[in-house]
Amino acid sequence: MEKLVEQAAGVIIESRMTVALTGAGISVESGIPDFRSAGGLWSKYDPAEYATISAFRANPKKVWKMLWEMGEVVGQARPNKAHLAMGELESIGLLHCIITQNVDNLHQAGGSRNVIEYHGNSSTLSCLWCGKRYRVEEKRDENPPRCECQNVLKPDVIFFGEAIPEDAMRRSFEFASSAQALLVVGTSAVVSPVNTIPSIAKRSGAKIIEINRERTHLTDSLTDIFFQGSAGEIMPQIVEAAKRKRGKPLP
Ligand code: APR
């Protein structure tokens, strides 16, 4: 592990554009279950019935029941050591952008500033009819939450079947295609189009550093340095090694 940490830190020190792609796994140590691990959210709720825009439109009250249950967990979650380590890496100029699939706001809470929310953010709700927006706290005791125009509100997260925000898509592509190092942390990388980010970065010559509790389809195809383990344990070690190396003149 020690050798891998030094190797990963070396890649980050030499990279003039380091980008991270994160998924639900980075927030598991903050108490938020991921989706596809054993016991993950999709083992409890069928995504076809709870995570598509057509399911939401057909039965918003049923989908909001799951959303409020998740909202309770997210509302109490705090950034863990992995989020904080990434915030520190950005603050010392060694991480330039995080592309996250998560909607829990924990990267921002962990000090990261340049965060692209590929699947939106769960802290606001919008009315699909009149466009009025609310903070989630304003509507926490309503199921389903309604706009003053009486229509049901939708969380500002991207459901399956919805388009990715154009700005998020464009900026993510720009960062991935100019990356010299890509940290892929806590994602199964099965959902498109966000799962094209690692291959875009690889094609542009980036070194891929993957942190995951288990191997993914990226591990044996695109990944250059693979850490099997928890993000909260491994990310801080990489940041500490990068800080040590940074203090030394490059060879
Ligand atoms: N440290 C590192 N990796 C972890 C940890 C941890 N502590 N805990 C879990 N993981 C890994 C799991 O092994 C898994 O590979 O994180 C990954 C989580 O994968 P998913 O549950 O599929 O989550 P994600 O990749 O973010 O899903 C993408 O799918 O349902 C949609 O919109 C949802 O944004 C989500 C998208």
Structural features, described:
With 251 residues, the chain is of the alpha/beta class. The chain folds into 2 domains: 1-32 and 79-119 and 164-251, Rossmann fold (3-Layer(aba) Sandwich); 34-76 and 122-157, SIR2/SIRT2 'Small Domain'. Helix content is 37%, strand content 17%. The protein has helices spanning 2-14, 41-44, 47-50, 53-58, 60-76, 81-91, 106-109, 166-177, 197-203, 231-246, and strands at 18-22, 97-100, 115-117, 120-127, 133-135, 153-157, 181-185, 207-212, 225-228. The chain has a 6-stranded parallel beta sheet, sandwiched between helices. Helix 1 (2-14) crosses helix 10 (231-246). The longest helix has 17 residues, at 60-76. The protein is elongated and about 60 Å long. The chain starts with a helix and ends in a 5-residue tail after the last helix. The model has no long low-confidence stretch (mean pLDDT 96). Bound molecules: adenosine-5-diphosphoribose.
Tell me briefly what this model is.
The protein has 251 residues and is α/β, with parallel strands linked by helices. It has helices at 2-14, 41-44, 47-50, 53-58, 60-76, 81-91, 106-109, 166-177, 197-203, 231-246, and strands spanning 18-22, 97-100, 115-117, 120-127, 133-135, 153-157, 181-185, 207-212, 225-228.
